[in-house]
Write a sequence for this structure.
C-alpha cells in the first residue's frame, strides 16, 4: 500500500494548498493595497490643489509685485489697495 | 388639521408612504414653495412626515390651501388647512414682499415665475451685457445649464430657476491657467463696479439688483477642453463633447438672440443625460466620484464651509451688540488701548464691536458676506466709527497675501485676534492664516489665539459635527514651523455648561 511521506502530496492537496495560500496572500495584500490607494489619492489631491495655489500666487505677483516700484512705498500701498478692492 | 389620511400641520405634510416614493411639488395657495426628491428630507422618527424645509418654517402660520402633486400632475393633497391661530394666509416671501421658493440647495430664492416683467427685462439686459463683456475680454461666451435648457425647450427662462448661467470657453491649457483667467475676468467686472462672489477658482457670480430691489445673479462659469474632455465648472466633465461648443451658434431666449454652443442638444445630453427635456425643479447633477475628486483638487477648497455659515448667519440676524467673550476681555487687558486689533474670523462682530467701544481701531475679517454685512450694520447702529469689516477668504492665497502685505505696511503694528477659528480650518487654510500673521506682525504685535471645542449653537450643525479637536501641541508645532514663537500658553476649563477645555496662546514673529 502506498504511503504518503512529508515530501509527497496528491494533486488535490496541491490545489487546496494553493487556494489556501491565495486566500492568505489576499488577506495580507488587500488591506495594504487599500492603504496604498488612499495614500495615492491623497497625493493626487495635493498635487491637484497646487494648480489653484499656483494660480493664486501668480495672480498676486502679476497684479501687485511685478508692476510695483518697490522703492515707492506709496505705489505699493496703492496697488495693494486696488487689488484688495477687486478681489 | 384632519385626523386621518394625508394632512398638513406646522410640523409638515403627513403623506402616504407610497406617495413619498416619487418626486413631489408642494404648492401653497397655488404657488410652488418647494419640491421633494425621494430619499431626502423625510422625518427619521416618522417616515410618513415630510417636514417643512428649514428655510420656510418661520412662514408656516395661519391658513393655506396646500396642494401636493406628483410630476404626472396627480394631487396627493389639495385642501384648505388651518396651521395655527394666526389670522393671515401663509405666505413665503422676502422682506420686500416678493414670493419665494426653496431651491434644490435648501435656500430661499425668488424665481423667474415670481418675477415681474420689469425685473426680467432688466435682468436680460444684464445677461446680454455680461456676454458682451466676456467676448470683449477675449473669450467665447454662451448660455449654459438652466438658461440653455429653457432656451432649447421653449425659448423661455425656466420658471423654477432663480438665476442664469453663462459659460465661456477658456483658452488655458492647465487648471492653473483656467483659474488665472477666471480671476482676470472677475476683475474686469469689479472694475465696472459690479458686485461679485467667487464660488471656486473657475466660477463666480455677478450679483445684480433689480428694479424692484430683489437681487438676482448671473453665474459665470469657465469651460475648458483638456484632451478630449470638456469640463464646465462646477461639476461637468464629459468625454467626446469638445466639438459641441465651437463654433458658437445662436438661440432665442425670451425674444433675445443670444450665443449658444454649436450643438446645444448634444451638450445638454452630455451634461444632463437623455431626460433633460423633462422639467424637474428638484433635479441635481450626480457627477461620478472620480470627476468630483478631480475638480475638488483643481478648482475648489478656498471657500469650504462658507455656504453653511452664510445660512447660519442669515438665520441669526441680531440687532444688539452682544457681550464680549471672556477671551476678548482677556486680550484687551494685555493690549495697549490704542493698538489696532484685527479680528480674524470675526463672524457678525461680537468681539470686534466690543473692542471698538473704546474707540480703538478695529478691523474684522470674515469670508461670510452675510456676517460682514450684519457686522457693518451693527457697527452703524451702535455709532462705532473706528471699526470696519471686510470679506477675506483665508483659503485663497490672493486674499491672504494681499491682506498680509496691507497690514505689514500699516503705520502702526497691530494685534491679531483669533477665537474659535483655527479649529474650524483645514490644514492648508490654517497655514494660510499663520502666513498672514507672520506678514502682519513682522514689525511687532502679537497673535492671540483661543482654541477650544466648537459646538452648536456657536456654529452651523455640519461645521460642529465635522470640527475635529485641534490638539494644542500640534497647533504650537505648526506655529513654530511658520516661524512663530509661542510666548504664552495656558489651558483651563471654561465656564460653559459641561465645561470644555480651552487653550490660549500668545505668539509673536521675529523679524
Amino acid at each position: 500500500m502506498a504511503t504518503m511521506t512529508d515530501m509527497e502530496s496528491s494533486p488535490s492537496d496541491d490545489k487546496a494548498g494553493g487556494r489556501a495560500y491565495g486566500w492568505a496572500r489576499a488577506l495580507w495584500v488587500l488591506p495594504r493595497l487599500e492603504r496604498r490607494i488612499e495614500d495615492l489619492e491623497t497625493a493626487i489631491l495635493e498635487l491637484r490643489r497646487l494648480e489653484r495655489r499656483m494660480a493664486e500666487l501668480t495672480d498676486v505677483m502679476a497684479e501687485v509685485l511685478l508692476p510695483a516700484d518697490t522703492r515707492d512705498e506709496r505705489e505699493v500701498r496703492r496697488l495693494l489697495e486696488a487689488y484688495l478692492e477687486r478681489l | 388639521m384632519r385626523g386621518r389620511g394625508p394632512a398638513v400641520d406646522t410640523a409638515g405634510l403627513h403623506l402616504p408612504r407610497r406617495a413619498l416614493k416619487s418626486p413631489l411639488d408642494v404648492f401653497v395657495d397655488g404657488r410652488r414653495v418647494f419640491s421633494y426628491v425621494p430619499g431626502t428630507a423625510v422625518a427619521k422618527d416618522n417616515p410618513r412626515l415630510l417636514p417643512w424645509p428649514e428655510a420656510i418654517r418661520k412662514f408656516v402660520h395661519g391658513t393655506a390651501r396646500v396642494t401636493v402633486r406628483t410630476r404626472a400632475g396627480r394631487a396627493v393633497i389639495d385642501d384648505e388647512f388651518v396651521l395655527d391661530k394666526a389670522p393671515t394666509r401663509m405666505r413665503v416671501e422676502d422682506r420686500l414682499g416678493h414670493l419665494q421658493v426653496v431651491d434644490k440647495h435648501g435656500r430661499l430664492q425668488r424665481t423667474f415665475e415670481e418675477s415681474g416683467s420689469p425685473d426680467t427685462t432688466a435682468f436680460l439686459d444684464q445677461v446680454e451685457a455680461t456676454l458682451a463683456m466676456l467676448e470683449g475680454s477675449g473669450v467665447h461666451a454662451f448660455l449654459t445649464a438652466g438658461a440653455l435648457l429653457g432656451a432649447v425647450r421653449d425659448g423661455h427662462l425656466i420658471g423654477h430657476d432663480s438665476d442664469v448661467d453663462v459659460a465661456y470657453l477658456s483658452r488655458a491649457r492647465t487648471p492653473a491657467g483656467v483659474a488665472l483667467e477666471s480671476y482676470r475676468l472677475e476683475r474686469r467686472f469689479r472694475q465696472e463696479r459690479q458686485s461679485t462672489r467667487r464660488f471656486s477658482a473657475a466660477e463666480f457670480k455677478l450679483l445684480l439688483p433689480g428694479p424692484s430691489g430683489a437681487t438676482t445673479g448671473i453665474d459665470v462659469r469657465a469651460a475648458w477642453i483638456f484632451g478630449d474632455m470638456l469640463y464646465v465648472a462646477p461639476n461637468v466633465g464629459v468625454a467626446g463633447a469638445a466639438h459641441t461648443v465651437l463654433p458658437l451658434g445662436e438661440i432665442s431666449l425670451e425674444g433675445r438672440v443670444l450665443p449658444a454652443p454649436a450643438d446645444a442638444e448634444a451638450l445638454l445630453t452630455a451634461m444632463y443625460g437623455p431626460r433633460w427635456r423633462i422639467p424637474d425643479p428638484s433635479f441635481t447633477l450626480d457627477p461620478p466620484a472620480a470627476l468630483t475628486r478631480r475638480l475638488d483638487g483643481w478648482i475648489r477648497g478656498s471657500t469650504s464651509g462658507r455656504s453653511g455659515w452664510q445660512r447660519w448667519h442669515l438665520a441669526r440676524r441680531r440687532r444688539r451688540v452682544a457681550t464680549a467673550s471672556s477671551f476678548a476681555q482677556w486680550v484687551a487687558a494685555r493690549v495697549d488701548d490704542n493698538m489696532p486689533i484685527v479680528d480674524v474670523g470675526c463672524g457678525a462682530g461680537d468681539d470686534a464691536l466690543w473692542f471698538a467701544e473704546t474707540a480703538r481701531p478695529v478691523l474684522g475679517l470674515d469670508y461670510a458676506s452675510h456676517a460682514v454685512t450684519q457686522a457693518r450694520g451693527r457697527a452703524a447702529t451702535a455709532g462705532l466709527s473706528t471699526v470696519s469689516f471686510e470679506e477675506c477668504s483665508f483659503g485663497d492665497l490672493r486674499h491672504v497675501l494681499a491682506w498680509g502685505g496691507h497690514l505689514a505696511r500699516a503705520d502702526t503694528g497691530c494685534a491679531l485676534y483669533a477665537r474659535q477659528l483655527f479649529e474650524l480650518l483645514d490644514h492648508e487654510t490654517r497655514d494660510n492664516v499663520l502666513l498672514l500673521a507672520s506678514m502682519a506682525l513682522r514689525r511687532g504685535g502679537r497673535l492671540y489665539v483661543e482654541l477650544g471645542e466648537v459646538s452648536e449653537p456657536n456654529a452651523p450643525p455640519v461645521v460642529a459635527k465635522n470640527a475635529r479637536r485641534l490638539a494644542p501641541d500640534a497647533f504650537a508645532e505648526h506655529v513654530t514651523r511658520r516661524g512663530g514663537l509661542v510666548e504664552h500658553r495656558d489651558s483651563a476649563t471654561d465656564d460653559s455648561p459641561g465645561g470644555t477645555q480651552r487653550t490660549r496662546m500668545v505668539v509673536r514673529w521675529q523679524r
